[in-house]
C-alpha cells in the first residue's frame, strides 16, 4: 500500500529556495552571449605548395572574367561550417584584389563583378556591403590578361571535422599594370578550430609602384562585420597584428616564399542556449537535472 508524502515546513522552504535558484539559473541561461572578435597572431615558415586539383574561381560562370581587374566571384561552397565574428558561414566570395568576402549577398554589378569599392582603401572606411572580409593581400591586383600563367582556384580537403578550405591566387600581378607574375598566395580556413592562415610565394617580378594601380601599398589581415580589424604592421621581420591599430595601407615588401601568417580565434564565437529540460516534480531531497544545448560556432566557452 502506498502512503502519501506530506511536505514539512522545512521541505517547503527548501522547495521555494530551489525554485528561486532555478528561476535565476534560467534567467542566466537566457542571457545572450556576446561574440568576441578576439584573435591571436602568429607566424611560421612551412614552405609553399601549389594547390593541386582545385576548381577554378569564376565570375558570372566564366573563368576568364575573374582573371581580369576588379573582379568579385560567384558564391563558393566551403563544404563545412566556418565560424567567424560570431556567425556560421558555409559560403564565400573571392575577389581578384586578394581578399575573401563572407558577405555573399554582395551581387556582382553588371554580371562581371567590377566595382571601385573592391580596390584597396583605408581599413577604417571599408564598405559595410563588403564586410566581413579576410585579406591575405588586399591591393589593386589582377590575374591574367597579360599573364597566361595566372590561376585562381579553390579546394576543400581532409575529412570532417578537420577539413580545410583553400583559395589560391597563383602567378598574380601586384598591381594590375604588372606584365607578369609578382606574387602567389593562399588563404586557408580550418573547420572546427576556425583558424585562418595566409601563405605566400615571391614570384619573379617586382611590385609595380607607379601608374593608376598604385595605392601606396597593400593590407594584410581580417575585418569583422562591425568593422573591427587586425592588420599586419609589415610583411617582413617581426610583424604584429593588433586590434584596430592603424588604418593605412602601406605594405610594399613581398612576404618571403613559404611565409605563413596565422590568426587563431581566442574568444567565444557567440553561442546561445537553445533548450533546457528538468525532471519534475522538484521536491526536497529530489535531484534537479538541467540539460543545456549550446549552439554556435567553435570555439565555445
Offer a concise description of the structure.
Helices cover 9% and strands 33% of the residues. It is mostly beta strands.
Count every helix, treating DSSP H or I runs of 4 or more residues as helices: 2
Largest sheet: 8 strands, antiparallel
Mean pLDDT: 80
Give the percentage of residues in beta strands: 25-35%
Radius of gyration: 25 Å
Order of helices and strands: HEEHEEEEEEEEEEEEEEE
Q: For the record, give the distance between the C-alpha atoms at the N and C termini, rounded to a whole number.
A: 50 Å
The total strand number stands at 17
Unreliably modeled segments:
4-18, 20-25, 27-34, 108-113
What percent of the residues sit in helical stretches (DSSP H or I)? under 10%
Decide which structural class fits the backbone: mainly beta
What overall geometry do the principal axes of the alpha carbons give? Answer: elongated
